[in-house]
Request: fold
Amino acid sequence: DFMYYLTANERTVIRLRYGLDGGEEMSLSQISTIVGVTRERVRQIAKMALTKMRHKANKARIFRGNEDWFR
Reply:
């Protein structure tokens, strides 16, 4: 679970933005009201969180199947 690598604030924004955990997707404005930051800051947090998760996913993909490197 790549959400593990995110801060609590990043996890909250991603969950709300994409409707994870059974919720509905929310707009940047709705999330900004809940979290207490501007819409722009919510957008930046979401972008940063997605970048972190992509980086971890790419790293995992590179090393998957190459366990021999570590022996």
Notes: The longest helix spans residues 39-63. The chain has a mean pLDDT of 88. The radius of gyration is 15 Å.
